[in-house]
Design goal:
Oligomer: heterodimer
Strand content of chain B: over 45%
Number of strands of chain A: 9
Largest sheet of chain A: 5 strands, mixed
Number of helices of chain A: 0
Helix content of chain A: under 10%
Structural class of chain A: mainly beta
Number of strands of chain B: 11
Radius of gyration of chain B: 13 Å
Chain lengths: ~110, ~120
């Protein structure tokens, strides 16, 4: 499984756009990139998944450069409720493929 | 959407007792489920892979005799912490893959275990 590297923590203010970058230099050809969000004392929640270029949903955007060795999760206009830990995972596109969590990025949104 | 539930959401027990945690997939079947443990301010650590109808696969360093896993049906996996000790106090989370061909996992809400 490809190892991921993320900043340990980030601070932001309400209304700002937050970009969290994840490095995954040894990503394999069939690996997808998935981001999860975790609030304290809750299980992680799926945010977004992509393979290449750009993916956007109602919650976030995911930017993946052509070499796919990194990805950036973009959260538009964050609010206090976006304070959470964000995990970047890289894994094969197969059902049942176990997930290996890295350290995640602890985002603190301030008023 | 798909939901994975866990029961109980929290449990407090005395040292030496056993505690069972249930993980259920509510609107889909899961031949495989995963159990994680998370200590405060740390990431999730995969403990084991629960396989319906067969033995669980444990990660290195996880004692299979202490953390008993039973995947008796396509919607239920249980984790039993046997002879619990204070160092077993943690947040236990299960997950299940959503569908064939997808890498997305659905996570349960977690179970907070406190061993006195």
């Amino acid at each position: 499984l490809a190892k991921t590297t993320q900043p340990i923590s980030m601070d932001s203010y309400e209304g700002q756009e937050v970009n969290i970058t994840c490095s995954h230099n040894n990503i394999a050809t069939n690996d997808y990139i998935t981001w999860y969000q975790q609030f304290p004392s809750q299980g992680p929640r799926f945010i977004i998944q992509g393979y290449k270029t750009k993916v956007t949903n109602e919650v976030a955007s995911l930017f993946i450069p052509a070499d796919r060795k990194s990805s950036t999760l973009s959260l538009p206009r964050v609010s206090l409720s976006d304070t959470a830990v964000y995990y970047c995972l890289v894994g094969g596109q197969r059902a049942g493929n176990m997930l290996t969590f890295g350290g995640g990025t602890r985002l603190m949104v301030k008023p | 959407g798909a939901v994975v539930s866990q029961h109980p959401s929290w449990v407090i027990c005395k040292s030496g007792t056993s505690v069972k945690i249930e993980c259920r997939s509510l609107d889909f079947q899961a031949t495989t489920m995963f159990w994680y443990r998370q200590f405060p301010k740390q990431s999730l650590m995969l403990m084991a892979t629960s396989n319906e109808g067969s033995k669980a696969t444990y990660e290195q360093g996880v004692e299979k005799d202490k953390f008993l896993i039973n995947h008796a049906s396509l919607t239920l996996s249980t984790l039993t912490v046997t002879s619990a000790h204070p160092e077993d106090s943690s947040f236990y989370i299960c997950s299940a893959p959503r569908a064939v061909g997808k890498d997305t996992q659905y996570f349960g809400p977690g179970t907070r275990l406190t061993v006195l």
